[in-house]
Specification:
Blueprint lengths: L1 H31 L11 H10 L6 H9 L3 H12 L12 H18 L5 H6 L1 H14 L1 H21 L2 H12 L5 E4 L15 E5 L4 E5 L7 E5 L7 E11 L6 E12 L12 E5 L11 E6 L2 E4 L9 E2 L5 E2 L5 H10 L3 H27 L17 H34 L2 H32 L11 H9 L8 H19 L10 H11 L12 H4 L2 H38 L1 H25 L4 H21 L1 H6 L5 H20 L1 H6 L5 H4 L9 H9 L2
Parallel strand pairs: 1-5, 2-5
Antiparallel strand pairs: 2-3, 3-9, 4-8, 5-6, 7-8, 10-11
Helix pairs in contact: 2-22, 4-7, 5-8, 7-8, 7-11, 8-9, 8-11, 11-12, 11-13, 12-13, 12-19, 12-20, 12-22, 13-14, 13-15, 13-19, 15-19, 16-18, 18-19, 18-20, 19-20, 20-22
Length: about 700
């Protein structure tokens, strides 16, 4: 009897499994298209075809209009100018020296021929300035960076750190490119630690001059854009040293900025006392001429001190509206956050190009399929969707977050409100770090997703990856910037418990910290309906709960370790925890801005597709860190499983409208320039390129 039962069970088990599998397929397909369930035994790819049937209708023109912002017109002017000038388009194969000269010609052409003068907008309309830089970077990332060096860094330092006398003397000629310049901050031994710079500027009261010196090899200014070939001036950051009353020593007043002429205005020869060398061929951005500068007793007029935050009188007396070196240093760096804003914003533009190329190719490319049936698009494969669809959703999320950053930055430049300055400083650091790191990883994933054709230089992933890679380092190393964010969060946390006010971006810490730090609700921890999981309140609460938990726990750890290790040792012991906290907070800000953008969208169909992308962004992030939520029982096992399933389903849904979402970036073919990403006849353009 037992033998017979065993035999019967072994026959029935596979049949039972088959029935269960079929039932699951039917149930999933009923979610995808309730009116058209698949036939029995349907192939998985047929099920995905079923998923495509339940697609949203997307009005690409309206979506694009909602995305584009108010300065699309000037971007199109940039695109049209370069499209009309093939001689100014960067070829695939070009030497370092040729690329540098071409990049300078591109910038001169844009300013003098096309009549686009970015410098006036640095102060007047930063949003318009950033739109121009993004468009220039789409033509050639080197061009966008060279423009940033000239106008954001060299020009920006003059108008932001100087006073009226500097603006009157330099503004017009910086604007017209008669005064090409550099931003000489980084040294061979010091990059992120700006207060550790060793270059000196010693005041000589007899001649009424500053004497600029490089005291050792470690103080050589390094990686200075525009220095190797084109720059005539440099804003040099150096320690200001003043003679003391007893004439026995020098008083260090901290790091200040000075305008130094480095080349002859007529002959372009390097001036006496200045030594300039080329930093050489780089991994990318070879259109930018990075150089190294050494100064040997170079004398400059006292008026060349950029004196907004500190000045020296004729008799050598120092005056400042700010009482300490640290406050002056913070004010000086606070005026330079524009560079981080530019990089965060530009990085999103680069991500859009990479995602557009990979998505269009994945829709075009067909490989394998069910037996005796046509091959299917590789974007029908779940693995390809998993690589690209969350990335596509993220590019939309980052778009709205960086737009918000630009708006806040513009507001800060007009109001000079101290609270807003602090908010923008931390937000720009966090978004620059988070977005550039994400884009760098994503470009490599996009290359891989396009197989062998992604490896062809003409399809751009190599140049995008190499040119963008340094975005993670300059204008602040990403790891250092995230620590600034974490430090600011801890400061806000401390103030919250001392009854202080919080800046705008951190409001949720004040409003809801106690709620977030209470024990998770065992009932809501198990809710798994689609309506609940796609509720923006659940999503944002989950992000903020994680941030609040991380903040509270790292504050406790720091307090504990400080007793034995000191503050520096405790910070280092908790460093990875602090970096995770900063990233979590920035993700919360990004999601909040995406949700706001969805909710204020006036067009119902556009709102629906943005909501889909927003839900995918949120649930994909939650699933990626599901261990954190499970560890504290914020999410029960059944809910975790439901989040995973829904994230996969939303990837299917986003795949259905992926072409429209990419088209809404509104990037013309002559801007994307990759044959495999052309809207029509991609393969024929590719074959023509290689000579068929």
């Amino acid at each position: 009897m037992s033998s017979s039962s065993s035999s019967s069970g072994s026959v029935e088990a596979p049949e039972h499994e088959a029935q269960l599998t079929e039932r699951r397929l039917r149930r999933l397909c009923s979610h995808l298209t309730p009116t058209a369930p698949p036939p029995r035994g349907a192939d998985r790819l047929e099920m995905l075809a079923c998923a495509r049937a339940a697609r949203l209708e997307v009005d690409t023109a309206r979506l694009s209009e909602y995305m584009r912002g108010k300065h699309r017109g000037i971007q199109e002017k940039v695109y049209e100018y370069f499209n009309s000038r093939p001689d100014l388009q960067t070829p695939l194969e070009i030497s370092k020296d040729e690329h540098r000269e071409l990049c300078m010609r591109q910038l001169l052409g844009l300013v003098r021929e096309a009549g686009i003068r970015p410098f006036q907008y640095v102060l007047e309309d930063p949003e318009k300035y950033l739109a121009i830089v993004e468009a220039a970077g789409s033509v050639d990332i080197s061009l966008g960076i060279k423009m940033g060096v000239q106008y954001s860094l060299w020009g920006g330092s003059v108008i932001n750190l100087g006073t009226k006398r500097h603006r009157d003397k330099y503004f017009d000629k910086i604007d017209s490119l008669e005064y090409p310049g550099c931003f000489a901050m980084t040294e061979l031994h010091h990059g992120s630690n700006v207060q550790g710079l060793q270059t000196t500027a010693t005041f000589d009261p007899i001649t009424d001059q500053f004497v600029i010196d490089t005291p050792n090899d470690g103080a050589i200014k390094w990686w200075i854009g525009n220095a190797a070939v084109h720059g005539k001036f440099a804003t040099v950051f150096a320690k200001l040293l003043l003679p003391t009353h007893d004439a026995r020593g020098l008083a260090d007043m901290g790091v200040h900025a000075f305008i130094v002429l480095i080349r002859d205005m007529e002959t372009h020869e390097t001036l006496p006392g200045i030594e300039i060398h080329d930093c050489g061929h780089k991994v990318g951005l070879n259109g930018v001429d990075n150089g190294a500068l050494r100064f040997r007793s170079v004398r400059i007029p006292r008026e060349n001190l950029l004196n907004r935050f500190g000045d020296v009188s004729r008799d050598g007396k120092y005056t400042s509206s700010l009482p300490t070196i640290n406050k002056r240093f913070a004010a000086t760096l606070g005026e330079l956050v524009g560079g981080r804003v530019v990089l965060a914003y530009t990085s999103v533009g680069i991500l859009k190009i990479a995602v557009a190329i990979a998505t269009r190719y994945s829709l075009l490319r067909q490989q394998f399929g069910p037996p005796k049936k046509p091959e299917v698009s590789i974007l029908d494969y779940q693995s390809q969707q998993h690589k690209l669809m969350p990335m596509l959703a993220s590019s939309y999320a980052f778009h709205f977050a960086t737009l918000y950053l630009v708006e806040k930055y513009s507001e800060m430049k007009k109001s000079h409100d101290d609270q807003l300055v602090g908010d923008v400083h931390s937000l720009s650091a966090g978004l620059k770090a988070y977005v550039t790191s994400y884009t760098a990883k994503s470009i490599s994933i996009c290359r891989e997703a396009c197989g062998g054709h992604g490896y062809a230089a003409v399809n751009r992933f190599g140049s995008l990856r190499n040119d963008h890679d340094i975005f993670q380092t300059f204008e602040g190393d990403n790891t250092v910037l995230l620590q600034q964010v974490a430090g600011d969060l801890l400061k806000q946390y401390k103030e919250k418990f001392q009854g202080g006010t919080l800046t705008v971006t951190w409001n949720y810490l004040r409003e809801s910290m106690n709620t977030y730090l209470s024990q998770p609700n065992p009932v809501t921890a198990r809710w798994e309906s689609e309506e609940h999981l796609r509720d923006p309140k659940f999503q944002l609460d989950a992000f903020r709960y994680r941030t609040s938990r991380l903040l509270q726990s790292v504050a406790v750890r720091l307090q504990k370790h400080t007793k034995t290790l000191g503050s520096f040792g405790a910070w280092n012991r908790c460093l990875n925890h602090l970096l995770t906290l900063a990233e979590s907070h920035i993700e919360s800000v990004i999601l909040a801005k995406f949700i706001e953008a969805v909710q204020r969208c006036p067009d119902a169909s556009v709102r629906a597709v943005l909501k889909l992308a927003c839900d995918l962004y949120a649930l994909d992030r939650i699933w990626n860190d599901i261990g954190t939520y499970r560890n504290v029982d914020y999410v029960a096992p059944n809910k975790a499983k439901a989040i995973h399933k829904l994230a996969d389903y939303l990837s299917f849904q986003v795949r259905n409208v992926a072409g429209e979402l990419v088209d809404a970036f509104d990037l013309p073919d002559h801007v994307i320039r990759a044959p495999i990403a052309m809207k029509s006849e991609a393969y024929s353009q590719y074959t023509q390129y290689v000579g068929f």
